[in-house]
Design goal:
The chain is mainly alpha-helical. Among the domains are: 100 residues, no CATH class; 68 residues, no CATH class. Helices cover 61% and strands 5% of the residues. It has twelve helices and five strands. The strands form two sheets. A three-stranded mixed beta sheet has the order 3-5-4. Helix 2 links the parallel strand 1 and strand 2. The model has no long low-confidence stretch (mean pLDDT 83).
C-alpha cells in the first residue's frame, strides 16, 4: 500500500506534484509488481489531504492500480481521542489550549464500521469494494485450496489477529494440510502457502496493535518525565489497571525522586492527592483506596 499522509506517494505529491508522484508510483510498481501495489486513500476532513487524494486517484487510474480506503486508524474508538490529542501537542510543542486546528484531524482517526467507511467514500465505491476484496482473499484461499467452510475460514482469520495466533495456527495447519492433500496440492506449494499464512500470524497481532501501544507508551513516558507527581497520582487513582501493582508504581515513583507520604486520617482523601512542599515541589499523599496495597501488613 502507498501509505497515508506520510507515505511515499503522498510525500512525492507534496514534494513535486503529479510528475513526482508519477515517478514514485512507477518505482513502487517496478519494485513490488503491478499486482502488489494498492493506492491508499484516507479522509480526515483536511483540504490538503483531499487534494492529494484526487491526485492519487488520477494516478491510480493512469497506472490501472486498485484503490483502497483505509483511513489511517490510530485508535479503536472515538472516545480514546484524548491520548492522541496529548501526543499531538507533544509533537508540536504546544499546550492543548493552543493546539487549535492541529487537533481537528484526530476526531476522525478511530476505527469505523463498514457502513461508515462506505458513506465516507461513497463517491469512490471501487475503493470500498477493493478493500473488502483484499480482506477476503485469505478466506477464499482457505476455502478453495483446503475445502474450509465459511466458519472455518473465519476462525482462521480471527486466529491471525490473535495474541496467541501461533498456537491457534498450529491446530489449523492440520486442517489446511488435509484439505490441500485432498485437492492434490503439491507438497512444495503447500509449504509456500503455509509459510505465507504462518508468517503473517507471527506479526498480525503486534502489527494491528503497534500504533496504539506506541502512542500510549510515548505519551505516558512524556507525562511521567515532565509531570511525575500528577502522572503517578492519576495512575494510582485508576487502579486496578493490570500489569503493575500499586505498590510497584509507588516504589518506581520514589526511585525517580517523588516524595510519597503515607495515609493520614487528617490529611488523606479517598484518592491520592498532591501536596505543595515548602521548596515548591509537589509530594504525593496516598489515599485510603491505595492503603491496602501500598502499605505492608
Amino acid at each position: 500500500m502507498t501509505g497515508g499522509d506520510e507515505g511515499p506517494l503522498a510525500s512525492a505529491l507534496e514534494r513535486g506534484g503529479m510528475n513526482e508522484g508519477r515517478r514514485m508510483l512507477a518505482r513502487l510498481v517496478q519494485t513490488f509488481g503491478e499486482k502488489n501495489v494498492f493506492v491508499e486513500l484516507q479522509r480526515h476532513g483536511i483540504c490538503e489531504q483531499e487534494a492529494r487524494n484526487q491526485a492519487a486517484i488520477a494516478l491510480a487510474r493512469e497506472f490501472h492500480l486498485p484503490l483502497l480506503a483505509t483511513n489511517g486508524v490510530n485508535m479503536a474508538t472515538e472516545f480514546e481521542r484524548e491520548i492522541l490529542d496529548v501526543l499531538t501537542t507533544i509533537r508540536h510543542g504546544c499546550s492543548l489550549d493552543d493546539a487549535g486546528l492541529l487537533l481537528q484531524q484526530n476526531s476522525n482517526r478511530h476505527l469505523r464500521s463498514a457502513g461508515e467507511m462506505a458513506a465516507l467514500f461513497r463517491d469512490i465505491p471501487e475503493a470500498i469494494a477493493a478493500t473488502g476484496e483484499l480482506q477476503e482473499q485469505l478466506l477464499r484461499i482457505a476455502m478453495v485450496i483446503a475445502n474450509f467452510t465459511g466458519g472455518e475460514a473465519e476462525e482462521m482469520r480471527r486466529a491471525l489477529g490473535s495474541r496467541r495466533s501461533a498456537d491457534k495456527m498450529r491446530a489449523l495447519e492440520i486442517k489446511l494440510r488435509a484439505g490441500m492433500d485432498a485437492n492434490g496440492v503439491a507438497p512444495k506449494a503447500q509449504e509456500e502457502i503455509l509459510l505465507g499464512i504462518s508468517s503473517f500470524a507471527l506479526y498480525g497481532f503486534p502489527e494491528s496493535h503497534a500504533a496504539s501501544f506506541a502512542l500510549i507508551a510515548y505519551a505516558s513516558a512524556w507525562l511521567k518525565f515532565h509531570y511525575l507527581p500528577v502522572f503517578t497520582a492519576a495512575i494510582l487513582n485508576n487502579q486496578p489497571m493490570g500489569f503493575y501493582s500499586a505498590a510497584v508504581l509507588v516504589k518506581d515513583a520514589q526511585r525517580h525522586g517523588l516524595r510519597i507520604k503515607p495515609v493520614d486520617v487528617l490529611r488523606s482523601d479517598w484518592n491520592c492527592t498532591l501536596e505543595r512542599e515548602s521548596d515548591d515541589i509537589y509530594s504525593l499523599r496516598l489515599g485510603y483506596a491505595t492503603f491496602a496495597v501500598c502499605v505492608p501488613p
